[in-house]
Amino acid sequence: MEWLNPLHSFGTGLLGETAWYVVWTLIKIVLIALPIILCVAYLTYWERKMIGFMHVRKGPNRVGYRGLLQPFADVFKLLTKEVITPSEANKVLYRLGPVVTLMPALAAWAVIPFGPEVVLADVNAGLLFIMAITSVGVYGIIIAGWASNSRYAFLGALRAAAQMLSYELAIGFVLVAVLLVSGTLNLSGIVDGQNVGWFAERGINFMSWNWLPLLPLFVIYVICIVAETARHPFDVVEGESEIVAGHMVEYSGMGFALFFLGEYANMILLSAMASIMFLGGWAAPIDIAPLTWIPGWLWLGLKTFCVVSMFIWFRATFPRYRYDQIMRLGWKVFIPLTGIWLVVLAIWMQTPWNIWQ
User: How far is residue 166 from each of residues 22, 92, 329, 330, measured CA to CA in Å?
Assistant: First the structure.
């Protein structure tokens, strides 16, 4: 961006080209990571407020104005809690598990575009990077369950790993379908590809987005990311009536908090991916003056907020599935459906009615 050129010139003259590149990259990482961490904290607040509204109660309203300081009170509580490490646990892996769960959810934001050319790393294989980095999170859960040296934690880790891997396959097929119609792995290119065509030329951008022609895959993706993050009604990984807290049962204090943060960070990340792949990313829904004045990063944030609110809506609405029902839905319904839709999509693109030309 041209308005940053004076800043780059000043930094290069002060520190040298190599040192300034390192410093500038660290600044951009902080500018991305801090808002994401704040969003994760306040997502817990919004969840309790939204469910409170649905239950006709107030939700958090004591700490700060309308309870706005509640997330900070929760963090302070967890920081001051005693951290108890099981005597027979593998100490190194026990402490490593929560970190491995949280870090991929934050590292994936390196390739998320917040607007045209507003991205930390605009790599050509951005979609592949997302698929690779998010699949690492399951290792943290397996490590935590095994290192705790607890049968309940180990069983919870196995259930979590099986569930996550099952739904990752369906999500992978959905991402392949988006790649097929977009013709690129670059996330910015995927957004740009949704804002062209007959409707986009007439200012009706939202009719050109992938949600419409790929509606079945969009629905499957939303359900799969709920199951991937083990959220209700797919939260049998930590079903209190069955295996207490699953792989997290032996964790306390900040160890438990990191798992909690990892879950909410993944919710925001996968919701942002839904916005980018199906909902036009940073683009306004209609190309008219008041809407085009809103910055692109804010449009992306609003769309992400709407998708992530669906997680909370589902939690307040549906009963919990049995574990066998969850696995059957993944393997016998979603994976075959996405595979069949991929074939239909490939045939569709070879006909004269191809809308992605």
Answer: 39, 29, 10, 6
Report the amino acid identity of residue 88. E
Summarised one tens digit per residue, pLDDT across range 12-32 is 777 777 887 888 888 888 888
208/201 Cα distance (integer angstroms): 9
Angle at 291 between CA 286 and CA 293, to 5 degrees: 135
User: Per-residue pLDDT tens for 244-287?
Assistant: 667 888 888 888 888 888 889 999 999 999 999 999 889 999 98
Give the span between the Cα atoms of 353 and 344, in whole angstroms: 13
Lookup: tokens for 207 = 């009719």
| 330 and 227 Cβ atoms separated by less than 8 Å | yes
Round the average pLDDT of the chain to a whole number and report it.
87
Count CA atoms closer than 13 A to 114's CA, side-chain side. Answer: 16
Show Cβ contacts of residue 19 under 8 Å, excluding neighbours closer than 6 positions.
Answer: none
Radius of gyration, CA atoms only, the chain = 22
Q: CB–CB of 176/342 below 8 Å? A: yes
Residue 5: Cβ-neighbour burial (10 angstroms; 0-12, 13-18, 19+)? exposed
Q: Is the pTM of this model over 0.85?
A: yes
- Distance (Å, whole) CA 357 – CA 349: 8
- DSSP track, 247-313: GGTT--HHHHHHHHHHHHHHHHHHHHHHHHHHS-TT--SS-SHHHHTS-HHHHHHHHHHHHHHHHHH
Contact indicator for 170, 164 with CB cutoff of 8 Å: no
User: Per residue in 153-172, pLDDT tens?
Assistant: 888 888 888 888 889 889 99
